[in-house]
Amino acid sequence: MEYSEKVKNHMKKHGIEHYQMLFNSMLSGFAHCEIIFDEAGKPVDFVYLEVNPSFEWLTGLQQVVGRRATELVPNIRNTNPELFETYARVSDTGNPEKIEIYLSPFKLWFVVSVYSAERGFFTAAFDNITDRKNVEEKDRTKRLFFESMDQINQSMQGATDPEQILTNVLSKVLSIFDCDRAWLLYPCDPEAPSYRIPMEVTKPEYAGAKALNIDVPMDSPDMVQAMREVLASQKPVIYTVGTENPVDKSTTGRFGVQSQMLIAVHPKLDKPWIFGMHQCSHPRVWTADEQELFQEISRRLADGLTSLLAYRNLQESEKNLSRSLNELSNLMDAIPDVVYVLDTERNIVKWNRMAETASGYSAEELSHKLIFELLPDRDRPLVIGMVNDAYVKGYTEVRSHLVKKDGTTIPYRWSAAPLRDAKGNDIGIIGTGWNLSKQVIAEEKMKLYQLQQRVCLDNIPDLVWMKNAAGEYLEVNEAFLSRAGKRREDIIGKTDHDVWPEEYADKYMADDKIVMQGRMQKRIEEGMPDSKGNVILVETIKTPTYNEVGELLGTTGVARDIAPKICP
Predict the structure, then answer these.
(1) What is the pTM of this model?
(2) Domains in the chain, CATH or no CATH each
(3) What tens digit of pLDDT does each residue of 374-396 get?
(4) Which of 355, 390, 470, 527 supports an S-S bond with 351, CB 3.0-4.6 Å?
């Protein structure tokens, strides 16, 4: 009670001074404005009545008091009508709102908190969140890329029939890009007499060519030119109606294509193919990120086509045993990954050239080795289990390593499948090995990115934390640790009662409960003790957090000092 009276008396005596000092020293931009209505009572503009220095610094606008927004930024009503709508709605209802908005005239992202204490007027506080948005977008793009490629890889690993694998990939492409058709054309050869569409997946409303594996005469100059452009480009080639690079009239007329993206696919064993997507519902602008993803998928399709062609050739080779052995060696050598065959004693009895290249051993040296001699000691039990499980399950994979002749260890993913004779008896194992070096590098880059996020968080002067729904701390930054006078391991997994004095802990947890129950952000001015017993007046913003399906996870909090210590 004595503490509360001290605060009241202090604020009564110095409140206006504190307000003006806070107003002028806030890092957030601050503007108090009046809505301007037309004769019909429709809000059409607003006038700046008061702004703080941070407003001018954040926007670059000068001498704004008494001037209209459309005078200062003439096109803002057209570029950001939602900003006017929000201001008008808050000034009319009095209900505060918070929005994140990209203001194109400034080429910046802002988070804007809008309040109104009087009808027709509003107060807006905003912060520049452009850096955060850029980081989020980069993170979202990277995550989407890896998630999409993971879907593609799983679709290729989920079936044993190569044609089904490629069909699965095209189906995933249709889903990932939300396009109307995904297809493969063969051959991508402008000199060929004809071409065909061996594989195609479409949405029901856009049926496609209806001519799978039917030879189509190469009599269209537009098709010949498109093939030449695709073969000459290392990147996807895009055609869109109404642009400098339009879809040819025959394709638009026959198949209703508004936009298409094409790329040449080069399997190891045959002529180039074309991998393509159609957008029929509307002219589509393919983003740079979508083009990069499309190109990476084409590389995996090249591997898939290589495997498909290898599989078909292998079937043909079974007609003649002597010829099949020679062709099998050629096929295995054409596959860009390691291929190996083991007998039932786990001796390496056959391999491709990539196995020699990857391991550094000659063919003679490999012929005297067990598969496990190419593995580090710690991985051998894991691979033994993979081989044993393959006989039971039919197919297994593990993430392990390859030890080269020079002792270098490379991350690899190994697969194994049983070899059986005509009677179904096990006669060995056939498997592949994929070099994961690039994937590991990508994972390390992601770890570095997460570390950079941690560094950024720890360099923010405000106190930042995250709790779960039970009130247990999940994360805190260095400013929080400094204020609490504790180590991170002494806080993570603990509640406020383990960190703060009881009277503060009770209040903080009660506020968390209000935020979670109301599912609304709460802004509080409150005291916060430090490790020396001083109490600092802070502005705390608590926000509920949710998962991707809208389930409540807990709260996040940010506290910013707004006054020096006020109580010893």
Answers:
(1) 0.42
(2) 16-128 (3.30.450.20), 149-313 (3.30.450.40), 337-435 (3.30.450.20), 460-567 (3.30.450.20)
(3) 888 888 888 888 889 989 998 99
(4) 355
